[in-house]
Specification:
Largest sheet: 6 strands, parallel
Bound molecules: uridine-5'-diphosphate-xylopyranose
Strand content: 5-15%
Oligomer: single chain
Radius of gyration: 24 Å
Number of domains: 2
Strand order of the largest sheet: 3-2-1-4-5-6
CATH topology of the largest domain: Rossmann fold
CATH class of the largest domain: Alpha Beta
Length: 446
């Protein structure tokens, strides 16, 4: 009989994983402690913006007309323990308040709540991003608490999905990494992932610490790549060079590669910033802090980008934001997402507001979340509305719709046609041709 799967925690990671498991043909039960989320998901609705996810959910969630009915959601832990052969733990591990380390309380609570209910053979699979050493600790906890004893086993299976591509990344991952303590666990995971494995997805079998580290190492590398190109942007600005050309040219070397070399206001979101900090904190605990001191620099280069954008904007406003109207295009930390966690765009908007500027923000999907975090900013219903009467326009999240804006038309709407591209994705030529003063981070002024 086919394995029955549960997914604990239904955020970006869990909701997508649950729907993807149903797509692969499994019976799936998702659990969340937030009743409203469970109700929403059960009705075939996704509590965040993620392209393709709602369609996939509706394709499988029981009760939606025409669905496979293989996917259900609950708040009941007994039901989950009873249902699952494989339990995926997908809860959040945010940064601790006022500390670099990551907050393991949701993962710990999930194991502590589930384990005492596990009275038959099963595999508990952690997917959350955790400090190295957590899996070994949680495996001991599971062994202590589960009535099934050694029959309830732990594995670690980090997830590399990107927001905005969550469905694609989950259904067609570029690799599957598992940290296991037994052949049995590996066998179960090969069964779960039989479809992607059949289509050639690399399967890396490792021990617990290596599997945990793969995730943090990958994110540390990506963050480093972005901060590297942003450091080059600083040099380009000082020397009169063009970082976009530079990135293109070094990117032709396939040892370097073109991806993740887009200079601008830097990285944000719920993963990269907190993951590099948690990684540093953990290295410190392990007595290996020297190995990761470079990540401190990666972090400060990144944070400097936001301050630099504020400076560029202030300069363009005549050295003061007082009495100036600033239009901010973008609030989400990246396009195709409504996630504003640690968003560079909102951070810049907030800083300018605090310095006395009148900031109006527009984002295609992130407005509701942005309003919750920064209720004191103004929000416009469209890019054009945000730009009306603006002294300066800041392009801070690279939504495709901003590339389609008409510079000529918008020049008539603003008070002063002055734009700063904080993402290096707008083409300066048409903007300048339409009379705009166009600046971009790390590129020559004209
Ligand atoms: C990241 C990892 O990519 C993913 O593998 C992991 O599972 C979770 O963390 P995500 O947070 O969705 O995914 O965003 P990502 O696409 O990595 O972008 C992160 C940030 O870097 C965004 O703010 C983005 O705008 C910025 N970025 C990205 C750049 O500034 N320049 C680039 O060249 C690429």
């Amino acid at each position: 009989m086919s394995l029955r799967i549960t997914v604990i925690g239904t955020g970006y990671l869990g909701a997508t994983h649950a729907a993807a498991m149903a797509e692969l043909g499994f019976e799936v039960l998702g659990l969340d402690v937030v009743k409203e989320k469970v109700e929403l998901l059960s009705a075939g609705r996704v509590p965040m913006y993620e392209p393709g996810l709602e369609e996939l959910l509706r394709k499988h969630v029981a009760g939606v007309e025409g669905s496979s009915g293989r996917l259900r959601f609950t708040t009941d832990w007994d039901e989950v323990a009873d249902f699952g052969d494989v339990h995926f733990v997908c809860v959040n591990t945010p940064q601790k308040h006022g500390e670099y380390g990551c907050d393991m309380s949701y993962v710990d609570a999930a194991i502590d709540t589930l384990a005492p209910r596990l009275d038959r053979p099963c595999l508990v699979v952690g997917k959350s991003t955790v400090p190295v050493g957590s899996a070994a600790r949680l495996a001991r906890r599971l062994a202590e608490l589960a009535p099934a004893g050694a029959q309830a086993e732990l594995a670690w299976n980090p997830e590399f999905l990107r927001e905005g591509f969550a469905v694609e990344d989950t259904l067609r991952p570029d690799r599957i990494v598992v940290g296991v303590a037994s052949e049995r666990a590996e066998k179960v995971l090969r069964e779960v992932y039989a479809a992607p494995l059949d289509s050639g997805t690399p399967f890396v079998v490792a021990d617990y610490p290596t599997a945990e580290l793969v995730k943090t190492a990958a994110n540390a590398f990506l963050a480093t790549k972005i901060s590297f190109i942003n450091a080059m942007a600083e040099i380009c600005e000082a020397a009169g060079g063009d970082v976009v050309k530079l990135a293109e040219a070094i990117g032709y070397d396939d040892r370097i590669g073109k991806k993740f070399l887009r200079a601008g206001v830097g990285f944000g979101g719920g993963c990269l910033p907190k993951d590099i900090r948690a990684f540093m904190a953990r290295a410190g605990e392990l007595g290996a802090d020297q190995a990761l001191t470079f990540l401190r620099e990666v972090d400060s280069i990144n944070m400097r980008r936001r301050a630099h954008m504020v400076e560029l904007a202030r300069e363009a406003c005549g050295e003061t934001f007082l009495g100036r109207r600033i239009a901010v295009l973008g609030a989400a930390f990246k396009p195709d997402s409504d996630d504003v966690r640690d968003s560079p765009a909102l951070n810049v908007a907030g800083q300018i507001h605090l310095q006395g500027g009148q900031v109006t923000v527009y984002d295609p999907k992130g407005m509701e979340n942005a309003r919750r975090v920064f209720p004191t900013l103004s929000y416009a219903a469209s890019a054009e509305d945000a730009l009306r009467g603006a002294d300066i326009v800041l392009h801070l999240t690279e939504w495709p719709e901003f590339r389609a804006l008409d510079p000529g038309r918008l020049a008539q709407v603003v008070s002063r046609p002055h734009l700063i591209d904080g993402r290096n994705t707008l083409d300066p030529v048409p903007w300048r041709a339409a009379g705009w003063t166009f600046r971009a981070m790390g590129r020559p002024a004209a």
